[in-house]
Amino acid sequence: MLATDLPFEKPLVELRMKIEELRRFTEDKGIDVSDEVAVLEAKARALADTIYRDLKPWQRVQIARHSDRPTALDYVRGMCEDVMELHGDRNFRDDPTVVGGIARFEGCPITFVGTQKGRDTKESIYRNFGMAHPEGYRKALRLMKQADKFGRPILCLIDTAGAYPGPAAEERGQGEAIARNLIEMFQLRVPVVAVITGEGGSGGALGLGIGDRILMLEHAYYSVIAPEAAATLLWKDPSQGERAAERMRITAADLKAFGVIDAVVAEPFGGAQRAPAEMIAALKVAVRESLDMLRRLPRADLLALRQHRYRMMGSFGELPEEGDLPEVDVPLPTLQE
Known about the structure:
Structural class: alpha/beta
Radius of gyration: 22 Å
CATH architecture of the largest domain: Alpha-Beta Complex
Strand content: 5-15%
Number of domains: 2
């Protein structure tokens, strides 16, 4: 297996390696084994369909964390033209974990912000493994307020295990920076589309995730806490992350059913890392549809819907002391096409 292969893919990888060995044997020895190769290829297709058709939550978490998945800058450069990255929070420093700037999306100017991960060890250290410092959130807010001033829609691309929890970040106001973003994003007067492209962890994700339209890639996850951290709290054992993921309802399908997100964007077979260009093209279509929908809404309706949807999350009803359980139905508002 290669380092980029996931544990649950091992049987498929071994079968594909066997197919490659037979092909090399044919080339080296000149013996035709095409019938055997065809049989094994059919088995590989059936096995792949079985593996990826019924992925468990923990397996989706593993795919969401794959180092070969497209990053925020990959999506922006693939979907937009005239991309210009901007830097700095005008207060402390530039945080390379949070990227942002302006670009043209199908000819229209937009502002983009996102959390950026690295592909190798050196880049991952530079990007702080996708965990933003306070200045990253302040940079994002600066760019979003600039977008609000000039009437540019905002695209947020989220892929983070969470905000950086180190002492230096806390000393510089990590919690305040995220809370400030939440307050200010509720008041933005321009359309905001947020996309969970991989990991959507804790307040680190929510600090860029207050939007009018929330999209989520098929194998991404979105959660108040990482499964391993939840397992540590619940069972004092981080190795129980798989068990926690099964119970936390963090997959795109679960969150769509709960009304936390608006749409699930299908990934290429096996995950976005298998066909990045195909994934970028699919997300571009979803973003276009969302922006077209939001641009038709009056500004007052835009703000009212955004604020209402988050107020209604977690709504509950009190049960009577006796009698049948009442039906509690508090639907989130939906944007009409």
